[in-house]
Structures are given as structure tokens and as C-alpha cells.
Automatic annotation (TrEMBL), chains A, B:
Pfam families: polyprenyl_synt. This is Heptaprenyl diphosphate synthase component II. The gene is hepT. GO terms for molecular function: metal ion binding; prenyltransferase activity. Belongs to the FPP/GGPP synthase family. Its cofactor is Mg(2+). Keywords: Magnesium, Metal-binding, Transferase. InterPro entries: GerC3_HepT, Isoprenoid_synthase_dom_sf, Polyprenyl_synt, Polyprenyl_synt_CS. One of its GO terms (biological process) is isoprenoid biosynthetic process. PANTHER family: ALL TRANS-POLYPRENYL-DIPHOSPHATE SYNTHASE PDSS1, GERANYLGERANYL PYROPHOSPHATE SYNTHASE.
């Protein structure tokens, strides 16, 4: 099955989520509605809602309950994007102007806060204390991850372990709990919820490595923003760390990163990207992403053979091929 | 009773809250601990915890439960301060460097997000769904209030009603729910919780009017930042709106505000403050604050005569005299 076929199959339920997202973002405050809907309309893969719904299939699938979890998780993701764009000083996202660029940083900060608050309001409708706890714990970790990213900017001596801890908090956790909370909201057993968490966690790690590879190797059309954005802002990702371990490249790459760091405004990254692509960094990062995908698929082994299991396995496959 | 005597009387319980605040802010991430504790150490009146505890006295006073509510509300307040300082570009708060000034805007934004998330994590320990709902609704309104403040910057034609709606969301709501949630956590009846909410709401309105007056009439030592900060950043407060209705002053004040608006960097506000103080705006705003205080005290009428009732009335009196 192709990814598009899966989305087509889930179309009805994803449309419900989409309407709910839109209804949630339409506030009585004109500017806030406008900024939030701007972001919503820019689209996105809605991968977190997809995981919530598929995880829910392993229990009592009740869309009215699951949609609250799905909407809350997508909103938390969106809120973090708005704040990221302030930090990254990013002008475009998904091929559209960012909130901070179309309006300003202050408006983007409060838009993020507002979307966050709306996410919480949505989830409080669900009277399962465990859901609130899992969610707020993850939110704390996500903030730590964002802070670590700032701390690690342009740190070419950070370890690979450092990178993994960071993307764990920044990305993998929210995908992991999308699976876990979908299961919990559907009344699955703890074991099932834990297996789905492990699936989401490993898929999330692979997903972020894939994203980081795409930022180096993709085209502007594919990424929705210019390639090399990560390195320009100082975000040293896995392929770069591996490239720095490659003796063929390290001596030329280090001063190139230093130059980018010291350039005021938009530094050129063509030479740095060339060097990284010549190195063994790309292949090594791809290999690690595939290992995470394999782990994700293994986490599903004990689960009953229903079509959602096949769907999750397929999605893991798409992510492995970065075919999304 | 003086305010200090009340704090002395509540010292044990407030110390418990203070330790809990500190423990909550001490994370495994060094920089986040540092930024959050920096803010905590700058002190503050902890008025929201005081209200939570006093409201709790009308039910089954259980400090272990109430402290979660008190800590969460104080943290939400603190998070909003950190984000405000980014927006206001404020260098000092409570006489100390702000997070955004000692570190930078990015770090301040994530520190705010982190403190927010910690607040939620603290409150999820309390397994009362109504508490989560009341809290997240208030958070949404607070964000709208912040956004309205930005929208209304330098708008000298805004109505007094506009100002009231804004401070309702920005300040009064959080104080209102401090009282309400203290009551709910202590198992009070709905009527009691509603009366306490009304008390907090009216006290909160008076409190913000008092704060706005202080920014115009206080000294740097009293305020912890230079007077006239509001007007410098474009925040048109009640005494200013009233001054603009005073024919003796309006014609000179309007161009003065326009000049401040058009000045790059730190505009002088001496002349504007002089004009406002000459106008009837100060007295009219004071009178309105007193009316809110009277309403607050009336909201307590039906409550049982326990010492907490006397304490709340006393606090309302201190706020009326801006004697805090």
C-alpha cells in the first residue's frame, strides 16, 4: 500500500480531525484566528493524528474520544513549530510565510502560547488523568529538548549520544505518546500501550534523522524551505557529526562551519553541503535510521494482526525510504 | 492586621509553597534551572498562592493538595511574566535583570514554555478534572488578553470597556481562579467557589488598575522598573484613557503619546506623566478601583465568618490603598 492509499482509507476520520482542528483554532479573537488558521492551512502530514487513530484501532475505537487526543497532539506540534520559527528566524515553513515573518515575533510567541492552551483545553475534555500526566511530562521534556538545541548550536564537539538525547526530546517523544495515548484513550492494556509507545519512539527517531538528512540532501521544493537551514542556524545534525568523524572531510568542513557561524545574516552553505555529501556521514545516518525502523517494526510483533498493524508497518517503511 | 502580619501568620504554609516552587523549578537541565530559579529568586508577593490557601480554608484544608494548585498558579503567572518581558523588551523586573536581558529572547521564550509545562505537570497530580478545565480555559483567555494588549498598543481611541476586557483576561481571571480552585481543591460547594471567584475577579481588576496607577505615579524603587514603562511601550491604561477625556489635558497629551510612539529606542515620558498627573485621570481610576474593591468585599458576604474571611477582606483593603 502507498502512503496516499492509507490516507485515502482513513479519509473520513482524518477529515473529522481536520474540521475539529479548524473549529478549535477559530476563536473569538480575529487576529489569533487568522494566525492560527494561517498555520493550519499551510497543511502538514498530520502524522500524529494518524498514529493516534491507528493506535486506537487496537482497543475500542471511538472517534469522538480519539479525536480529542489527535487534535491536542497536532496542536502541541503546531505550537512548537511557531515558537521554533521565532528561534530559527525562519521566513518560510511548508512553502508558506511563517507567522513570525508574516506578522512579527511577538505575535508568533503568543500564537504559540494560544495554540498550546487550546491543546490543553481540548484534552481536558477527556476525563482520563493518565492522559494529562503523560502529556504534561512530555511537554516538559520537549522544552528541555528545545533548550538543548540552543545550547548545542555550532557545537561541533558534541557527541552522537547528545544528538540522540536531543531528538528524543524534540521529536520522538511526541510521536511515541501519540501512539501511547491513542491506545490509552481506546482502553488498551498497558502492555499494548507500551508496545505502541516503543513503536512511535523508534519511528520518531528515524523520522527526525530522515528530516535532518532531507535538510542536507533535499531540494527547496521538497523541504518547503532552502536546504542547509539547519547548519546555517547552527543545528549540528547526525550526518554532520558523522561527516566530522570522516578524516577525508573533517579538516575542510570544520572551518567551513566556523565561517557560517561567523557570517552575519544568511551565510552560504553550498560548500558545507558538498563536503557533507562527499563524506560517509549520509550513508551512516541512513543506516542508523533504518535500524530504528527495524526496532519500530519489532515493537509491533506482539500486537494482534489487525489491518492497523499492517498500516503502521507500512508507515515505518515509508519513513525508512523518506518517501513522504 | 497589616499585610506583613498576615504573611507572618501564613509563614509555615507559604514556606512549604516556596520550597515546592523551588523544587519544581530545579530540573535536570542546568540552564533551565538557572533561568527559572533566577526568576523565582527575584521574589514577588505570591498573591496567587495566598488566595489559594485562604480560599482552601472554607473547605477541608489539605496543604498537600492545595500546594499543587498554588504552585501551578504561581508558575503560570511567572511564565507569563517571562514572555511579557520578551514582548515589552524589558530589562528589569522586580529590580532584577529579566531573563531575556540576562540571557536572550530565545532562552526567555523557552524558559516561559518550560515553566508553563511544569505548572501543568504539577496540577495533573490533582485528580480533579474540573480543575484542569477551569485552568486551561483561563489560559486560553490569558493568551487572548496578551494578544489584545499588542493589538491595542498606542491606540488612544480605544474605549474604557476595551481596557476592562483586556485586564480581565490579562490579570483578573488568574486571581479569580486562584480563589475558585483553592475552594474546589478543598471540596467547597459550588456556591462558595463561585463567591470566591467573584471576590478574586473584583480584587484582580482593582489590583491591575492599582498596578497601572503605580506605573504612572510610583518611584523606580517602588515599581522595580522605571515609571512610565507602560506608556513607553504603548500600553494605554485606564488613567491615561481618563486623562484623554479631560479637556484640560487631552490636546497636549495626544501629541506627546504620538511622539513617544515615533521615537526610536527609549522615549522620555516625563512630560506625558506630568500631564496625566495633572488630569482628573488619576482620581477617576482610583475611584473605579475602590468600587471593584467594594464589590469584592460584598462577594464574601454569604461566606461563613472564619478568620480567612477577615484576611481576604484585609487584603482587599491593602489593594485599595495600594499599600503592598
Amino acid at each position: 500500500m502507498r502512503l496516499l492509499d492509507l490516507y485515502a482509507k482513513m479519509k473520513h476520520d482524518l477529515n473529522v480531525i481536520e474540521s475539529e482542528l479548524e473549529a478549535t483554532m477559530t476563536s473569538d479573537h480575529a487576529l489569533l484566528s487568522e494566525t492560527s488558521l494561517h498555520l493550519l492551512k499551510a497543511g502538514g502530514k498530520r502524522i500524529r493524528p494518524v498514529f493516534v487513530l491507528l493506535a486506537g484501532k487496537f482497543g475500542n475505537y471511538n472517534l469522538d474520544e480519539l479525536k480529542k487526543v489527535a487534535v491536542a497532539l497536532e496542536l502541541i506540534h503546531m505550537a512548537s513549530l511557531v515558537h521554533d520559527d521565532v528561534i530559527d528566524d525562519a521566513d518560510t515553513r511548508r512553502g508558506q510565510l511563517t507567522v513570525k515573518s508574516r506578522w512579527d515575533n511577538r505575535i508568533a510567541m503568543y500564537t504559540g502560547d494560544y495554540i498550546h492552551a487550546k491543546a490543553l483545553l481540548t484534552i481536558t475534555d477527556l476525563q482520563v488523568p493518565q492522559v494529562h500526566q503523560v502529556l504534561s511530562k512530555a511537554m516538559v521534556q520537549m522544552c528541555i529538548g528545545e533548550m538543548e538545541q540552543i545550547r548545542d548550536f555550532f557545537n561541533t564537539r558534541q557527541t552522537v549520544r547528545n544528538y540522540f538525547l536531543r531528538i528524543r526530546r524534540k521529536t520522538a517523544l511526541l510521536i511515541a505518546i501519540s501512539c501511547q495515548l491513542g491506545a490509552i484513550a481506546a482502553g488498551c492494556s498497558n502492555t499494548t500501550a507500551q508496545n505502541l509507545y516503543r513503536f512511535g519512539y523508534n519511528v520518531g527517531m528515524a523520522f527526525q534523522i530522515g528530516d535532518d538528512l532531507l535538510d542536507l540532501c533535499g531540494t527547496e521544493k521538497q523541504i518547503g524551505k532552502p536546504p542547509g537551514s539547519d547548519i546555517r542556524q547552527g543545528n549540528i545534525t547526525l550526518p554532520v557529526l558523522f561527516a566530522l568523524e570522516d578524516p577525508e572531510v573533517a579538516d575542510s568542513l570544520l572551518p567551513e562551519i566556523e565561517r557560517i557561524r561567523n557570517t552575519e545574516g544568511q551565510a552560504g552553505t553550498v560548500r558545507a553541503l558538498e563536503l557533507i555529501k562527499q563524506s560517509s556521514g549520509i550513508a551512516r545516518a541512513e543506516e542508523l535510521a533504518e535500524r530504528y525502523i527495524a526496532k519500530a517494526v519489532r515493537a509491533l510483533e506482539e500486537l494482534p494482526t489487525i489491518s492497523a498493524k499492517k498500516n503502521l508497518t507500512d508507515i515505518a517503511g515509508f519513513i525508512a525510504k523518506r518517501n513522504y
